[in-house]
Amino acid sequence: MAWDFETEPELQEKLDWAAALVREEVEPLDMLWPGLEFTPPSDELRTIIDPLKAEVRRQKLWATHLGPELGGEGYGQLKLSLLNEILGRSSWAPIIFGCQAPDTGNAEIIAHYGTPEQKERYLRPLLDGELFSCYSMTEPHGGSDPTLFKTRAERDGDEWVINGWKYFSSNAPTAAFLIVMAVTNPEISAYQGMSMFLVPSDTPGVNIVRNVGLGGEPLGEGSHALIHYENVRVPAEGLLGGEGQAFAIAQTRLGGGRIHHAMRTIGLAGKALDMMCERALSRETKDGILADKQFVQGFIADSYAQLTQFRMFVLYTAWTIDKHNDYRKVRKDIAAVKVLMPGVLHDIAWRAIQIHGALGVSNEMPFHQMLLGASVMGLADGPTEVHKMTVARQVLRDYKPTDDLWPTGHLPKRLAAAKAKFADHLELEVGNL
Ligand SMILES: Cc1cc2nc3c(=O)[nH]c(=O)nc-3n(C[C@H](O)[C@H](O)[C@H](O)COP(=O)(O)OP(=O)(O)OC[C@H]3O[C@@H](n4cnc5c(N)ncnc54)[C@H](O)[C@@H]3O)c2cc1C
């Protein structure tokens, strides 16, 4: 009997340690340096974060999803999920534990497809937390369908020359290098005609036209860039994987990215539920506390059930990824988790707001960021609607049409089949009457 929902005591001890570190040492960073997670830290800030990272390494919790050959612990996705639930409560925590998006996904594809030289130049410092990276794929005229991308890379001697526009390239303003997806052969299907390139950010022609922010961030400020690649020359060695491999690489990268976001979302939604419960138990009305009201109890019960259901699905999916060691074999469940994620975070954050009243919508509570985060989860790494189509297509693969006029489940048809199967017994029964 292999189904088991228990965490082994040694890992639980580590998770408890991580939870305490996040609560006591890391969450204060969220208050003091919000939004600076992906900015190379000042010397002053390093005196705080470097010892925390060192402590995480000593506890063998640094980049746990990567194998030891890459400086991680090789824990796999299931254990990472249990850890990420804790890290999702704080925006600085993934940085301190060496598993922040988009760098984890970028590291994974360099580890998977990179040459030894590319690994030495980009992967090592990325994994050491010494630099940040950017994944530059979406284009301004459309992101959901990569077959529409126009950014072009043309071969010129020993170099590739990249021209085009990219939009919402997260962390481009502070990244040391970008992973750029470009059309290398427009004559064939986009699935074979696009390639990935590793481009140092200071390469001439990488023009950040403007930084795009989220929600209420001031115009012109933000970490998602509109980039004009203008005659950007990349040496042949800058090609990541083989020519025409961009789609295969993107699937590897985005599969991991999506499930890691889901793991962290469990933590964030759990934080909203914790706050909702504390408020329900604390806020008095004329005839009792909020927790005594049935509507409020409904909010709490629905949130708990929704979160637990989602958590089980994420853990199961993580377990399946470990089992197959291949994101592509778990596409259906990764897509299904991705579809559920915005709803879970949205619903629980919304209920938390409602229970907190005016305080809930104020800028003195973090719920508005969670609501925005829910919308982001419905778009980043592909919109919900496209993932629903993936789920449906994958589900339908296990079915075939019937050539009969009546469906297989048609009751008169099933009754007739059941009568035919047990005809001898039925005759006997009738005979005995
Ligand atoms: C916070 C954030 C960070 C991001 N970071 C990055 C990054 O680092 N690098 C990067 O390359 N991109 C990044 N993105 C971009 C993201 O991948 C795209 O937003 C996403 O793929 C959707 O593309 P789009 O925004 O162009 O929307 P569109 O393609 O214009 O789609 C808009 C809407 O149309 C509908 N739609 C579109 N196509 C279909 C379809 N086939 N069937 C049904 N409905 C459809 C969906 O409802 C969709 O939400 C980020 C986005 C966000 C919000």
A few lines on this structure:
By secondary structure, the protein is α+β, with helices and mostly antiparallel strands.
Structure description:
This protein is of the alpha+beta class. It has three domains: 9-100, Acyl-CoA dehydrogenase/oxidase, N-terminal domain (Butyryl-Coa Dehydrogenase, subunit A, domain 1); 133-240, Butyryl-CoA Dehydrogenase, subunit A, domain 2 (Beta Barrel), CATH 2.40.110; 248-396, Butyryl-CoA Dehydrogenase, subunit A, domain 3, CATH 1.20.140. The protein contains 15 helices and ten strands. The strands form three sheets. Strands 1-4-5-8 form a four-stranded mixed sheet. A four-stranded antiparallel sheet has the order 2-3-7-6, with no helix packed on it. α5 runs antiparallel to α8 and α9 packs antiparallel against α10 (331-356). The two termini are 47 Å apart. It binds flavin-adenine dinucleotide. Flavin-adenine dinucleotide binds next to β1, β3 and α13.
Present as ligands are: flavin-adenine dinucleotide
Distance between the termini: 47 Å
Strand content: 5-15%
Main sheet record: 4 strands, mixed
The total of beta strands comes to: 10
At CATH's second level, what is the architecture of the largest domain? Up-down Bundle
Give the rounded overall mean pLDDT: 94
Q: Give the full name of the CATH homologous superfamily of the largest domain.
A: Butyryl-CoA Dehydrogenase, subunit A, domain 3
The H/E string reads: HHHHHHEEEEHEEEEHEEHHHHHHH
